[in-house]
Design goal:
Layout: E1 6-12, E2 21-27, E3 34-43, H1 46-52, E4 69-76, E5 88-91, H2 103-106, H3 117-120, E6 132-133, E7 139-140, E8 152-156, E9 160-163, H4 169-172, H5 178-189, E10 197-201, H6 205-216, E11 221-226, H7 232-238, E12 242-245, H8 253-257, E13 268-271, H9 276-284, E14 292-295, H10 310-313, E15 317-320, H11 328-340, E16 350-355, H12 360-368, E17 374-378
Parallel strand pairs: 10-11, 10-13, 11-12, 13-14, 14-15, 16-17
Antiparallel strand pairs: 1-2, 2-6, 3-4, 3-8, 3-17, 4-5, 5-9, 6-7
Helix pairs in contact: 5-6
The protein binds nicotinamide-adenine-dinucleotide and zinc ion (2 copies).
The site of nicotinamide-adenine-dinucleotide (NAD) has 29 residues, from helix 1, helix 5, helix 6 and strand 11.
Length: about 375
């Protein structure tokens, strides 16, 4: 099919708050600097659902959602050199252009390469057009530079992390978003040290990845907080030393952690809920003098965070992370290799599995249920 349009099945988000519709779409060949991929497996992430539920004011419809996937390169556009047909890749919504002029790619302090940010945010490929059309020939927008709820997609070369062909794509896909984000928040953004104390708010896939990363970093105490006690077993089995059901406390959770469970608070805390009150609690339960709190959760549109400035004056530091600070093309292959080497198990994140792109609505329903960490759809 190289150089020709492909007809395939995709789940199209026609409008906010509507189920996805199964459609036969056309996927154009990749242009210069682009890669067309066959999607093998896609895991659902809350950001897809957030957009589908209409909470993202910049969400564009119709679009093809999906951004946590494992793919095989089907064809490459002009000038593409870093991947070849048949390579296994993870599409990454945080690209890495690696250009000498890109001050973000050249800095070790950040992973936020802005090279294609303008068009990616508008649902377009870098040249300002789309590769997806419906059966009437009408354009369909891209999403987060990935759009993996389709049997085929086109992504920028700088968004492709090439991974080992030995890694099963229905597991490696998890490194495309939530799991990497939680691990990287601990290892890159906060650089948690041996013997640190940690508090994690929200025990979905991201929060559990924070716990796993903190345990691997040698944290001595990991306090896991959720309002759903059903989440505690998984948290404990992966390394949490204490669990707190914050809905059952008589006092604010920050006063329980800094005051009852610890004297001065924890060295590091992480918000993995997206709730701005929780973000405040996470900051305020961090240690006087040096505590660092990291915002991972994506808050609802228009929400703001607040605390008394005294919290910062007395030595607490408020941080945030996108994709765990990982430089996508360089770091995702290393994470996948660690998993293959048995150093970084991730199978426990997959609680639900489905077959066929057409079962994506069922996967979304599963994600809405409280017991789901990740639902993986194999195409
Ligand atoms: N920064 C990034 O790059 C990035 C990447 C991926 C995901 N995210 C965001 O991270 C967040 C977590 O993602 P997830 O997939 O793990 O979500 P999830 O919905 O599976 O998990 C959230 C957890 O928080 C718990 N919770 C809700 N309200 C709470 C409260 N008041 N106190 C304590 N716990 C509470 C829920 O019971 C649930 O267990 C989301 O906001 C997601 O959008 C951010
Ligand atoms: Zn995501
Ligand atoms: Zn760059």
């Amino acid at each position: 099919m190289i150089g020709k349009p492909i007809s395939c099945k995709a789940m199209v988000a026609r409008a906010a708050k509507q189920p996805l519709t199964l459609e036969i779409i056309t996927v154009d060949p990749p242009k210069a600097g682009e890669v067309r991929v066959k999607v093998i497996a896609n895991a659902l992430c809350h950001t897809d659902v957030y957009t589908l539920d209409g909470h993202d004011p910049e969400g564009l419809f119709p679009c093809i959602l999906g951004h946590e996937a494992g793919c095989v390169v089907e064809s490459i556009g002009h000038g593409v050199q870093s991947v070849q047909v048949g390579d296994h890749v993870i599409p990454c919504y945080t690209p890495q252009c690696c250009e000498a002029q890109c001050i973000f790619c050249q800095s070790s302090k950040t992973n936020l390469c802005p090279k294609i940010r303008g068009t990616q945010g508008k649902g377009l490929m870098p040249d300002g057009t789309v590769r997806f059309h419906d059966k009437e020939g009408q354009p369909i927008y891209h999403f987060m530079g990935c759009s993996t709820m389709s049997e085929y997609s086109v992504i920028a070369e700088i968004s492709c992390a090439k991974i080992s062909v030995d890694a099963p794509l229905d597991r490696a896909c998890l490194f495309g978003c939530g799991v990497s984000t939680g691990l990287g928040a601990v290892w890159n953004t906060c650089k948690v040290e041996v013997n640190s104390t940690v508090a994690v708010f929200g025990l979905g896939a991201v929060g559990l990845a924070v716990i796993q990363g903190a345990k691997m970093a040698g944290a001595s105490r990991i306090i896991a907080v959720d309002t759903n006690a059903g989440k505690f077993e998984a948290a404990t089995s992966i390394g949490a030393t204490d669990t707190v059901d914050s809905s059952k406390l008589e006092k604010p959770v920050q006063q329980h952690i800094a005051g009852v469970l610890t004297k001065w608070g924890v060295d590091y805390s992480f918000d993995c809920t997206g709730n701005t009150d929780v973000m405040r609690a996470a900051l305020e339960c961090s240690h006087r003098g040096w505590g660092t709190s990291c915002v991972i959760g994506v808050a609802a549109c228009g929400q703001e965070i607040s605390t008394r400035p005294f919290q910062l004056v007395t030595g607490r530091c408020w941080k945030g992370t996108a994709f765990g600070g990982f430089k996508s093309r360089k770091d995702v292959p290393v994470l996948v290799q660690k998993n293959l080497d048995g150093e970084l198990p991730i199978d426990h994140f997959v609680t639900h599995e489905f077959i066929g792109v057409n079962s994506t609505n069922d996967a979304i329903e599963a994600l809405h249920g409280g017991g789901c960490l990740r639902a993986v759809v194999k195409y």
